[in-house]
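subagent[fold] <- orchestrator: predict structure for attached chain, return tokens only, no commentary.
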Amino acid sequence: MSDFNEFDQQGSVPSRDTGSIISHAFEMYKGVFLYAIVAMIIYLIGGFLIQTISGFNSASFAEEIRDAGGDFTDFSYWNAPGFSTYLTLSGLLNILLAPLYVGLIFIVNKFNTKNTIEFSDLFVGYRQNFVNILVYSLLSGILSTISMWFCFFPFFFVFPLLMLGYPILLFENASATEALGKSYNIAKENYGTFLGATFLGLLISFAGIILCGIGIIATAPFIMVVMYSLYCAFLGKPRQILYKQ
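subagent[fold] -> orchestrator:
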């Protein structure tokens, strides 16, 4: 197993511990940083269009929450203008953009294996295994949403079980249920490492909000790169795939 600092023609693979996986993800992220920003900008544009269509004002909504002063007895999220429509369209957007996240993982692998990256690689998920990517996004989204309903905290324990899904869909051309089952089984057997890597990955991904708000554009996609590093650590460096033109 090669060290993550040694970039050879075959690509690097981290050890099966949280520190090595996060370090490997950092090395990968530095090489695909601009593509990650493009993916995030596309997501933000979609989010802006959804707010415009739904009539939901997130800034006004956040201000109302602050003005509530912690007393939410008379506060109803669902009565906010356009909120329910916004949630529905946001969920649909996340599903439709899932292939874009898969494309970022594909670019990370090309960077790792020293293959030439093309801008069109970002959209490989729309050309390969597209339906299963959408179905997996829907299934994982439902599981994540259910876990969030229980005071949000359980989400951090459920999400690690889903971390390998997108890489499996991409590199193994698996079905949505196969990817879900395989991700769950591997993560379950190595749960401590998956929990640690996922928690740190999410912490770094959301650091942009804490640091300067708009910085979320630069940090949010990091969790997708952690997915790739986890795949390399537990399933080996992916084979170089040829996608349909």
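orchestrator: received. Logging for downstream: Residues 1-8 have pLDDT under 50 and may be disordered. The two ends are 33 Å apart (CA to CA).
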